[in-house]
Amino acid sequence: MYVTKRKLVTLWGLILMKSGWLRILLKKKLSTTSQSLMMIPLYMEYLFNYLCLVIWMRKKILDAVCIEKDVDGFHPENMGRLAMRGREPSFVPCTPKGCIELLHRYNIPIKGKRAVVIGRSNIVGTPAAFLLQREDATVTVVHSRTENAEEITREADIIISAVGQPNMVRGSWVKPGAVIIDVGINPVEDPESARGYRLVGDICYEEARKVASAITPVPGGVGPMTIAMLLSNTLLSAKRIHNFS
Description:
By secondary structure, this protein is of the alpha/beta class. It is 41% helix and 11% strand. The chain has ten helices and seven strands. The protein has helices at residues 2-19, 21-26, 33-43, 59-64, 76-83, 94-105, 125-134, 149-154, 205-208, 222-241; strands at 114-118, 138-142, 158-161, 179-182, 186-189, 197-200, 214-215. The strands form two sheets. It has a five-stranded parallel sheet. The longest helix has 20 residues, at 222-241. The relative contact order is 0.11. One of its GO terms (cellular component) is cytosol.
């Protein structure tokens, strides 16, 4: 899976750092682990041309990363620009960007529509809400403290769900003809599967597909879009750095 592979790469980097090999590679002895963490984005310039940051790494790294190479779009400045009217982020977070791209590619109107985003994470929910607002949708964010979540969701023309709760959104939550983008990917036990589990989304697919006009599958829906948008952002970064038009 996309996130798992990236976590493994980052974990290998952390092992190098903890073991002291990273300091040898960088030919720079740093006095504390904190300093090491702060200096990684600066010294990685010698090793990598582009930096792809995973959000679960330390906040100090996130703040220190070069914004021109923040192809994940998680830097606070990029998020701030995304939230502001009249400002453009250097990069848009990949998964929300992929969600909007899906709507565009299938000619699904957004302007003036009611949109509900389920989940308010910094990775998907919050930037997805910002992007929908930029498309002139009327946006409501549903989260763990929201009262009457089912009633609110039932009013939506567009639903983007990213909460990590298997089959949370039932068919009764969905307005007839609504468009659903299911970002959730959750393992559930399945004795008939060779792996002992199968992957499902936040949306109860079998129920929702009978009501919705369009719905993304899990797996194979948003995941490939996330990877495609990451590659798109990386290419954009390369073009900017090397002044390619």
